[in-house]
Write a structure and sequence with these properties.
Strand order of the largest sheet of chain B: 1-9-8-3-4
Largest sheet of chain A: 7 strands, mixed
Order of helices and strands of chain B: EEEEEEEEE
Distance between the termini of chain B: 39 Å
Radius of gyration of chain A: 13 Å
Number of helices of chain B: 0
Strand content of chain A: over 45%
Distance between the termini of chain A: 36 Å
Shape of chain B: globular
Structural class of chain B: mainly beta
Structural class of chain A: mainly beta
Oligomer: heterodimer
Helix content of chain A: under 10%
Order of helices and strands of chain A: EEEEEEEEEEE
Number of strands of chain B: 9
Strand content of chain B: over 45%
Largest sheet of chain B: 5 strands, mixed
Radius of gyration of chain B: 14 Å
Largest interface: A-B, 31 and 28 residues
Chain lengths: ~110, ~110
């Protein structure tokens, strides 16, 4: 049982390049989320998908797009990378609501934009 | 969304009990309190969750007073491996997705 798998683990981009970060979960969760974490900071929500077929903006959506490909997969795309997008990106899937709500995180993708 | 306030950092020694308090004055009736732990270069992982009074599991205890405006995560007899960032989250999940906010967390450093 792999949980939440992110690819790639590391990536270096030049300013203006595009790329897609992949996330897949095998726990049959409905909700999937993308966060970014800058050095010494907490996690900030970029986009989330409460269920297959729906996506919504979080705190910092500018410069990103997402696709909920199916229940398992939720990808994050940077159309034109900027140095300000240098960060560690985490994908998470959430199970339950209220008392039973819990997030499961991937290992992260460390992205550097030069 | 209820905002949380935690100490930025704490130091402790091995074997001591560590208590990290989180303030959430605007907590709503339906909100639960959840704590996550994050090691360097890893994603956060769930530690404990509660609604009121006291919750205990194999890792930690969570104390929530009657007014629920704060909560305290208690780690018994910490070891070096407990050095991590601890996040306090408040939210209710709901049916539309969990727009829970992770603040900066509390950096716990355990010394030998």
């Amino acid at each position: 049982n792999a949980g939440v798998t992110q690819t790639p683990k590391f990536q270096v981009l030049k300013t203006g390049q595009s790329m897609t970060l992949q996330c897949a979960q095998d726990m049959n969760h409905n909700s999937m989320y993308w966060y970014r974490q800058d050095p010494g900071m907490g996690l900030r929500l970029i986009y989330y998908s409460a269920s297959e077929g729906t996506t919504d903006k979080g705190e910092v959506p500018n410069g990103y797009n997402v696709s909920r490909l199916n229940k398992r997969e939720f990808s994050l795309r940077l159309e034109s990378a900027a140095p300000s997008q240098t960060s560690v990106y985490f994908c998470a899937s959430w199970i339950g609501t209220g008392e039973s709500a819990e997030a499961f995180f991937g290992q992260g993708t460390r992205l550097t934009v030069v | 969304l209820a905002k949380t306030t935690q100490p930025i950092s704490m130091d402790s020694y091995e074997g001591q009990e560590v208590n990290i308090t989180c303030s959430h004055n605007n907590i709503a009736t339906n909100d639960y309190i959840t704590w996550y732990q994050q090691f360097p270069s890893q994603g956060p992982r769930f530690i404990i969750q509660g609604y009121k009074t006291k919750v205990t599991n194999e890792v930690a205890s969570l104390f929530i007073p009657a007014d629920r405006k704060s909560s305290t995560l208690s780690l018994p007899r910490v070891s070096l491996s407990d050095t991590a960032v601890y996040y306090c989250l408040v939210g209710d999940g709901g049916t539309g997705g969990f727009k829970t906010i992770f603040g900066a967390g509390t950096r716990l450093f355990v010394k030998a």
